[in-house]
């Protein structure tokens, strides 16, 4: 039997979908959502028996036990009242029994039917996300969340309540439920309630043990409010012996009368549902009526709802997308009291989804304080909750909730596994909540509009909210500068008047929700749904954990390095002055340019727009390659200065009180899907230089721990061998041969046993250079040979491996035809400059098109491994944690005695992250510091 919680779904659909009216002007957004859900259920999840269960009224046996039960709930909104009858009409139109019984709630009827079916030896699926129904789950009974179509069984119940389904009522009795006005025991939250029930077994056992507990406020509350807890249990426990209005035997699935359904759908103007069901009238007699209905059905009276040509979407999604473009922005509510916030929380829970945004007093989520929180439950329907606004004499802040009090009210919503929380750049907000005291790992499920966009448009445009809003919604959001001022007149957000902060902050949540409605359906259209769901979305909390963990540093070692670098830079400056013939500021590009090109008369200089000589690294490198001493010395000085300022000095400033530094991983910056590290950037520490090695030595394992490095070996070359289908390279990797020696042998016709190091080095330069579209000039400069000789090497390489040339041409053609290339795992990497008129820019774009599938494929593989590793380590009973990702390398911290086991497990998971025609190989190392492990 399939039992649909009709009453529960009505409110969710009403709050989740934008206002809509049928051809007669009657509101129908909840009807539309319910109809889509029912149509999908009949198509995808039909049992042998089916019924939709409704509430008959507010007066039940519970109001006799406790008159305050649900008494605080407001009357249904005006726009919802006429929809109750229409939803029952929809049920009848689909030939499904609609069941209700005066004096009983729908939940009690569902419980009684489910119990009866189980006793008959059948199974029952309850289509609902209502937490109160989770007490019914057990052998023969499960739940199905109606929006996301996900199963809810014992593991999900345990994750939500901390107990098995049979103990849910005891936990609910202790913690109470403000949504239904169930009193519970004051001060007892979900974690405490589940801990008590797990320890003592039942509510009565907890209450009996209370007098013997250690003296505390919790003990006193349990004793004082014992009777309230007992009443609460009666309120939350579902009746399982309600007289059944219709016997189970009469609820067998009935045949659909297509003409009846078509008539009803057309009367409502629901043409998209008609199309998906394929139940339109064959003679087209009602076509004019459907067209009229579609023309009149409106969202806030401003725009037509989705017509028959709209792509299939989740219930109401296309209509909501239309509302996202048409509904006015604001006015928005300011929430100042616990009572008002509870109303918003209830609305969000009934809607089944909401957008969330935080305002902070800083940009570091690990230390920033929340100034306010925004919620949006439908397009145009949003609020701002001020928490730490200071106000002025002219504009006082007014009443505000304390941050801790607001979090207590929001916690049931944010941790509710049946309500989708939508963020823009979720990782930042999750860490802000975590810093405020709400463990971010308990928040979920979560969607991220930034990553939804990035999964389908990397490199095409930026992924910031303002840019996405302008691009997809045609709306320019209120700017931060217009709220806080600019320059010297800028004020901290804490000093922005609440009246000015509300429209700015609430609009952010509103825009985020609208973007979700528009962008999420496109994931499937753009074939990016798996990429988002399997990689980008689950990676966000993994990275948050890594950022929160940070990595330990040796302050003394960094201090010594900084002094050493400063001393060496002083010596180098004297040598540079001698080479220049006079003293000057080595760090001044203008002074350096004057010496190189005006005084020394070196050729090849170029002036910028301001008239000064350019002395960037490419200019200096070109001069150094020509044999000029001064540019080479300046390059060496700059490298040391950069290491000193970026690492040895900066790391000492950025380390927290526990001597750990916490980098931030940017998820939506690169075209290829690679992560970007900043504040500090730990991805640019030189690997092969002495100075880079010394900096890595300053990243250490705490006492009793070890660092473990796991690095993919030659992953981009392996991907090249795979996607370009090069038999010789595939064979070399399969046999574990030295790939560069094998390449040299193949290209230069030299036996492996006769290979010299110079020839191997040339083959290595070609192998890696080909990936980046290296030119003959570039290869010649790298190898110190004439460009003509380098060109001969490249020609010989392509002659030996023609498949690589074919692959490169395919990528160029794909980029020209579509504007993007695909990684082996389906990620789109856009190449905006592929049609540039400038040959230089166009050729650069072509090199991007060749490299992006390989670099992006490598990024996809390591992300796959990162998503799997935390659970793999946990399941193996290993306490290691992942700290850093640096391109193809992962760094872990583990107990010393577990280090070998961690390294072995990590290697296994990383090597199994993808299946190619060549093996993936991971090299691991263990050490007291990063350099030693690497």
From TrEMBL:
Biased composition (Low complexity): 292-319
Membrane-traversing stretches: none
Homology family: Belongs to the DNA polymerase type-A family.
Chain positions covered by the region annotation Disordered: 284-319
Gene, per the UniProt record: polA
Domain annotation DNA-directed DNA polymerase family A palm: ranges: 692-898
Gene Ontology molecular-function annotations: 3'-5' exonuclease activity; 5'-3' exonuclease activity; DNA binding; DNA-directed DNA polymerase activity
Domain 5'-3' exonuclease: 1-254
Family annotation (PROSITE patterns): DNA_POLYMERASE_A (PS00447)
Matches recorded under Gene3D superfamilies: 3.30.70.370, 5' to 3' exonuclease, C-terminal subdomain, 5'-nuclease, Ribonuclease H-like superfamily/Ribonuclease H, Taq DNA Polymerase, Chain T, domain 4
Keyword Metal-binding attributed: no
UniProt organism field: Acetobacter orleanensis
Function description: In addition to polymerase activity, this DNA polymerase exhibits 3'-5' and 5'-3' exonuclease activity.
EC numbers, comma separated: 2.7.7.7
GO biological process, one term: DNA-templated DNA replication
Oligomeric form and interacting partners: Single-chain monomer with multiple functions.
Pfam families, alphabetized: 5_3_exonuc, 5_3_exonuc_N, DNA_pol_A, DNA_pol_A_exo1
Annotated 3'-5' exonuclease domain residues: 332-524
Reaction(s) this enzyme catalyzes, per UniProt: DNA(n) + a 2'-deoxyribonucleoside 5'-triphosphate = DNA(n+1) + diphosphate
Lineage top rank: taxon: Bacteria
Lineage: Bacteria, Pseudomonadati, Pseudomonadota, Alphaproteobacteria, Acetobacterales
Protein name, UniProt field: DNA polymerase I
Top EC class, one word: transferase
Keywords for this protein: DNA damage, DNA repair, DNA replication, DNA-binding, DNA-directed DNA polymerase, Exonuclease, Hydrolase, Nuclease, Nucleotidyltransferase, Transferase
């Amino acid at each position: 039997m399939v039992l649909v919680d009709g009453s529960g779904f009505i409110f969710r659909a009403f709050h989740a979908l934008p206002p809509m009216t049928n051809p007669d002007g009657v509101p129908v957004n909840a009807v539309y959502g319910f109809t889509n859900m029912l149509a999908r259920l009949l198509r995808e999840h039909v049992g042998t028996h089916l019924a939709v269960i409704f509430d008959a009224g507010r007066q039940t046996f519970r109001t006799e036990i406790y008159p305050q039960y649900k008494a605080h709930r407001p009357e249904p909104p005006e726009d919802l009242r006429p929809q109750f009858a229409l939803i029952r009409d929809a049920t009848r139109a689909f030939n499904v029994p609609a069941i209700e019984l005066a004096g009983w709630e729908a939940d009690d009827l569902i419980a009684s039917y489910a119990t009866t079916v189980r006793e008959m030896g059948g199974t029952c699926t309850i289509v609902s996300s209502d937490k109160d129904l989770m007490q019914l789950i057990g052998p023969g009974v499960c739940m199905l969340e109606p929006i996301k179509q996900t199963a809810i069984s014992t593991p999900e119940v345990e994750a939500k309540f901390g107990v098995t389904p049979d103990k849910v009522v005891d936990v609910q009795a202790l913690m109470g439920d403000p949504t239904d006005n169930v009193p519970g025991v004051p001060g007892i939250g979900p974690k405490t309630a589940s801990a008590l029930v797990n320890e003592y077994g039942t509510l009565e056992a907890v209450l009996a043990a209370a007098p013997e507990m250690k003296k505390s406020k919790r003990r006193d509350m349990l004793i004082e409010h014992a009777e309230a807890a007992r009443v609460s249990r009666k309120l939350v426990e579902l009746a399982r012996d309600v007289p059944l209005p219709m016997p189970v035997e009469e609820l067998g699935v009935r045949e659909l009368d297509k003409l009846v359904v078509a008539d009803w759908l057309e009367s409502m103007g629901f043409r998209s549902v008609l199309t998906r069901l394929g139940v339109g009238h064959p003679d087209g007699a009602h076509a004019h009526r459907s067209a009229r209905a579609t023309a009149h059905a409106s969202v806030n009276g401003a725009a037509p709802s989705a017509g028959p040509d709209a792509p299939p979407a989740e219930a109401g999604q296309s209509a909501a997308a239309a509302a996202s473009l048409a509904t006015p922005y604001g006015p928005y509510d300011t929430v100042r009291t616990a009572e008002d916030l509870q109303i918003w929380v209830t609305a969000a829970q009934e809607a089944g989804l909401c957008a969330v945004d935080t305002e902070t007093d800083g940009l570091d989520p690990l230390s920033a304080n929340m100034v306010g929180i925004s919620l949006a439950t439908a397009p145009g329907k949003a609020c701002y909750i001020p928490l730490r606004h200071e106000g002025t004499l002219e504009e006082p802040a007014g009443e505000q909730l304390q941050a801790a009090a607001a979090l207590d009210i929001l916690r049931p919503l944010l941790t509710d596994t049946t309500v989708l929380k939508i963020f823009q750049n979720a990782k930042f907000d999750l860490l802000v909540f975590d810093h405020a005291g709400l463990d971010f790992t308990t928040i979920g499920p979560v969607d991220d509009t930034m990553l939804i966009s990035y999964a389908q448009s990397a490199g095409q445009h930026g992924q910031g909210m303002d840019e996405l809003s302008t691009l997809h919604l045609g709306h320019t959001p209120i700017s931060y500068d217009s709220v806080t001022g600019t320059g010297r007149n800028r004020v901290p957000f804490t000093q922005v008047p609440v009246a000015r902060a509300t429209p700015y902050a609430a609009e952010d949540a509103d825009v985020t929700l609208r973007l979700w409605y528009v962008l999420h359906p496109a994931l499937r259209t753009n074939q990016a749904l798996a990429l988002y769901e399997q990689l980008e979305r689950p990676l966000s909390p993994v990275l948050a954990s890594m950022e929160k963990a940070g990595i330990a540093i040796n302050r003394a070692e960094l201090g010594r390095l900084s002094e050493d670098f400063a001393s060496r830079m002083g010596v180098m400056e004297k040598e540079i002055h001698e080479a220049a013939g006079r003293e000057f500021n080595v760090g001044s590009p203008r002074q350096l340019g004057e010496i190189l090109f005006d005084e020394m008369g070196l050729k090849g200089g170029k002036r910028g727009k301001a008239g000064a000589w350019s002395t960037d690294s490419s200019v200096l490198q070109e001069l150094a390659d020509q044999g000029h001493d001064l540019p080479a010395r300046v390059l060496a000085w700059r490298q040391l200065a950069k290491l000193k300022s970026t690492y040895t000095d900066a790391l000492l400033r950025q380390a927290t009180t526990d001597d750990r530094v916490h980098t931030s991983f940017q998820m939506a910056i690169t075209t290829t899907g690679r992560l970007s590290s900043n504040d500090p950037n730990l991805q640019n520490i030189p690997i092969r230089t002495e100075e880079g090695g010394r900096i890595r030595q300053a990243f250490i394992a705490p006492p009793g721990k070890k660092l473990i490095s796991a690095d993919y070996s030659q992953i981009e070359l392996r991907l090249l061998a795979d996607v370009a289908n090069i038999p010789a390279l595939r064979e070399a990797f399969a046999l574990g041969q030295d790939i560069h020696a094998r390449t040299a042998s193949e290209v230069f016709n030299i036996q492996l046993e006769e290979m010299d190091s110079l020839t191997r080095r040339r083959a290595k330069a070609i192998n890696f250079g080909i990936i980046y579209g290296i030119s003959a000039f570039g290869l010649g400069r790298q190898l110190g040979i004439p460009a003509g000789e380098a060109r001969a090497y490249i020609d010989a390489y392509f002659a030996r491996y023609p498949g690589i040339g074919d692959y490169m041409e395919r990528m160029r053609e794909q980029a020209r035809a579509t504007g993007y290339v695909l990684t082996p795992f389906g990620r789109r990497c856009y190449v905006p400059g592929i049609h540039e008129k400038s040959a230089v820019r166009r050729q650069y774009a072509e090199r991007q098109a060749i490299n992006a599938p390989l670099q992006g494929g490598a990024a996809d593989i390591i992300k796959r491994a990162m998503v799997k590793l935390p659970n793999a380590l946990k399941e193996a009973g290993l306490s290691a944690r992942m700290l850093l990702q640096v391109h193809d390398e992962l760094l872990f911290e583990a107990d010393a005695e577990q280090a070998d086991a961690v390294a072995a497990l990590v290697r296994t998971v990383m090597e199994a992250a993808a299946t190619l025609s060549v093996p993936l190989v991971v090299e691991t190392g263990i050490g007291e510091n990063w350099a030693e492990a690497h």
